[in-house]
Amino acid sequence: MSRNSVEPRSTGAAKAALLKLGEWSAEELGRRSMTRRAVQAVIWGIPVVNFDLMYQAMVRDAKGGPNRIVYWSRLFDWKNQTLTPNPDAIYFMPLFDTRNGPMVLEVPAAGEGSITGSVMDCWQAALEDVGTAGVDKGRGGRYVITPPGYDGPVPSGAIVLTSGNYQGYGLLRSILKGGTEADIAKAVAYGKQIRLYPLARPNPPETRYVDAIDVLFEANIPYDLRFFESLHRMIQAEPWLERDRAMIDVLRTLGIEKGRPFTPDGPTADILETALEEARAWFDLQYETRFTPHAPGARWFLPADPVLVEAVADGFAKTDVYPIDGRGLAYYYAFSSIRHIGAGQYYLFVTRDKDGDPLDGARRYRLTVPSDPPVRQYWSATAYDFATHALIRGTVHSSRSSQTIGLKTRPDGAVDVFFGPRPPPGEEANWVPTAAGVRFEVLFRFYGPDKPLFDKTWILPDIEKAS
Prior knowledge:
Blueprint: H1 12-21, H2 26-60, E1 68-71, E2 80-81, E3 90-97, E4 103-107, E5 115-121, E6 126-131, E7 141-146, E8 159-162, E9 167-174, H3 181-191, E10 195-198, E11 209-211, E12 217-218, H4 225-237, H5 247-253, H6 266-289, H7 306-313, H8 324-333, E13 345-350, E14 365-369, E15 375-385, E16 399-401, E17 415-420, E18 431-433, E19 440-449, H9 451-454, E20 464-465
């Protein structure tokens, strides 16, 4: 036998492999194959499902529709059940659909207010950052969002955002200058200068706003069959991106195919829901183990995959890099993306206390924010339900920030923030409520982050148990 010949598979290790293969029935092999493919579909598809859930919440809960701007007319509470939303900014979310032609998004110039945010496609890949830390640098801008294949005219001076999808949205935060009711009203009024309208209309119609304040805006990730129903809905609505063509056959074996209804039978539905449980367990594990601590020995971390950050920044241009795992993990706990992270905002997450124990909603904790925090705008600390990554239901408020009215500062300039089901005596202004029976996590936001944060001459201490 020549050295290039292939040894018959009936000998040695190959024979043992055949014997092992025989331990599984055709039915079992089919089930295992479908489960693996379904898990991968969840990891791959969660960004677009995340988007669809927010869109469906706007239509179902806020009575909105495409090419409108959903906003909150004051600081929202736990009823905003999106993933890790910021309750210390006024949110404006233009949801666009370019199926009938390009849409124009006008962002006002900074002055009496400022915008920090990004415009994304339905896969939540940032087309561009806007506002003071974005491409318009706070001068205001007229952004034209074009549909797939568009080669028509655009106005002179417009900033063109080319999308491979029809649907998408913007997350535009109208930043408060203080915590008073007047400051909030000014941020709302400034944000309502944002305009969204079709490019084709010679006389632009009035922008349609949908106020979601006090609306139970349910957009959590459902780890049940609704996940695949949402994924099917988006596959029907959007073109295949070239980078995703390998998923066409994978989804077809799960019953998701363009032009066909999604009607899984009982056994298939059971497999899909088992796969969702496995994917969720994988997300949980990765979330707590994958990321590097912000400082040596610290519990705080920035949950950003460097490969994903680079891919978002260059619009997934590299043909030999496609961080599906990192992207899936990002949209398991959050929504929206930033094209240039760290320019306008920076985030640190924590899920455990200084001792390494999970944060328990029945216990009391203290976070000491040192003096001179490195922010040009404000900082905030927000508690979320670890199981859903949404605001803890039923709490009277969800965060405390440097703009909180009545926030107490120590003589050395530091601030103690307390977490627990009840406030320590006299510390209501510095208290973030939690709930017994709910494991929680904390997100610390830096708006207008400054150099000491990045060179680590200013370090945020870990959260400690308090008596």
